Amino acid sequence: MKEIKSLTGLRGLAAVYVMIGHIGFLENKNGICYKIKPIRLFIDHGYISVDIFFILSGFVLMLVYGNTKWNRSYNIFTFIKKRIARIYPLYLFCFLIYFLIDYIFINSWFVGNGNLGFIFNLLLLQTPFNIAPLIGPSWSLSTEWIAYFLFPVLNIVVIKIKNEYLQFFISLGLVTCLFLIGISPGWVGHKNILHCSINVFSGIPALFRCIIGFYIGMLLCKLRIKLKNNKIVSCSCFQIVITATILLLIMFTYMDIFVFMLLIILIFSLSYENGLISKLLSHKILYNLGLFSYSIYLIHPLLIGELKDVIYYSLKKTSLSNNAFIISLTICLFLVIFYINILNCPQRRGF
Asked: Which UniProt keywords apply (predicted)?
């Protein structure tokens, strides 16, 4: 099966959505974003994008490597090598920038986490061991990193399960586990703004959150390959109704698990590349946004956080201090372009 452009476009929108959730519109309690509850909840729910990433990762890897024979060590080594080449160069690039900024100007993260935190973050193992990530969004990369190593085993399990009913009950069980994680305050490890939120980003529960989405994405891909044509699920009306329902539900509390289930259905529908929503997400602009989604996801905290603050305080006594955001935006865009053209392409060629 060829690349599914609508899913790439969805990944791009998800990266922008999680960035909106991090920008801090809600810090001003007198602002319109804070006063109007549906808008506040919509922005708060930016973390749902991470679950989209998890599902899409499982789906795409199953699409590309689903028929691989993992009994050959060469295949496992090649797969891991490709994952490293795709994920690690940008992460290492950003990690060094973040570390230098923190160590030179702020010196808060390193003081709190020390050499052990540095090593675990460098190896992308921070989340399962409940160590604070130097790059905020990298907690999800840490869990996906482990999911990649588990993929050959999960792939064999998915292929061996022939019974559709068993697959359905496994999926239902995984969604139930995700719901239980959301309603268990002792597992969350942070102060939840929303009730029944699945916004778990530390420790073993965060790893479970990733594996659940990842595995469901794999099952979804297997089902999609089997059902080559499904005019009802892939029609415009179906996609519009599902999309509208998702947008409505994220403006309310207690709805995370229902949003998650609807996202599974939407991704399955979009994978047919029919229907209005699929066509919109396949547009060149959104498709290219999806190609840069990983860069957006990792670099945007520089734009809205450390880099902006450093520039502001460095230029505090000058007329340029009010333009700290614009300056940080320019620097971040330069970093993205530099990475894509100098570092990314050679590493990912053929991967």
From this structure: Acyltransferase, Membrane, Transferase, Transmembrane, Transmembrane helix
Length reported for the chain: 351
Q: What is the pLDDT of residue 295?
A: 85
Angstrom distances, CA of residue 231 to CA of 2, 221, 225: 19, 17, 15
Sorted by sequence, the CB contacts under 8 Å of residue 161 that are 6+ apart come out as 167, 170
Residue in 20, 63, 77 with CA at minimum distance from that of residue 43? 20
Q: How does pLDDT run across 270-304, given as a tens digit for each residue?
A: 999 999 999 999 999 999 889 889 988 988 887 66
Structure tokens at 147: 């999911």
Instruction: Report the C-alpha gap between 226 and 289 in whole angstroms.
Output: 29
Q: Determine how many CB atoms are found less than 10 A away from the CB of residue 323.
A: 15
The pTM is what? 0.87
Q: Are 281 and 270 in contact (CB under 8 A)?
A: yes
Whole-number Å distance between alpha carbons of 279 and 265:
17
Answer left, alpha or beta for residue 43, where phi above 0 means left and psi between -120 and 50 means alpha.
alpha
Distance CA 97, CA 315 (A): 20
